[in-house]
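Now for a concrete sample entry.
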Amino acid sequence: MEHITEVKIYKSPKKVYNAIAKSIIKLTQESQQKAFDIALSGGNSPKGLFKKISKKYKDEIPWKRIHLWWGDERCVSPDSEQSNYKMTVDYLLSNIDIPEENIHRIRGEEDPEQEAKRYSKELEDTLNSRGKDPVFDLIILGLGDDGHTASIFPDQIELFDYPENCAVAQHPISGQKRITLTGNVLNNANRIYFLVTGENKAMRVSEIMNDNEAAKLLPAYYIAPTNGDLIWFLDEEAASLIS
């Protein structure tokens, strides 16, 4: 796939987390920008990364200049065990010294449609833009077993062409509502890191990497930054079926 800049494969999940952490340190330390905007992934994927940063690298990242956003959020309260924000507080935010105003959470407890509009506007008002869309310096994404990324699911691939920055999505099985960044914003980023570990992801990874017909049904296949780099960080298990 011509829009993938690089695929990096590591022996274990821990080595994946370490590599991404070091890459974030390098990016943020070398950046001259007053604000460096990062959108975080939810779910289980980033827990190990957040732990690694908290334990080993928390003093090497210039948090005063880092602004943290989310790629998606479940429509639940911020103290719910299902909240991506709460997971980030537990594993990262509670361990680092970052100004409160640098944390831009999606308010999962609010009316979903209204909150998608509000977050869209906050992105527009705060981030740099390229064309009509806001620009993230870095977006970290995970990959679901079903090929979803952020909260764009296989039955909602049209969210890649959605005109607004954020949309309300629905989990195809549980019916739970979520707020997600849409394709225009995702693909306008300066760089995207896919963090994917585990054997259960191997099939989807191979479909995408081998450009199979089946991949066209997977939202993650459509992550293709127009002006940026796309780097996959995989462990050996997740990469085991790439031909």
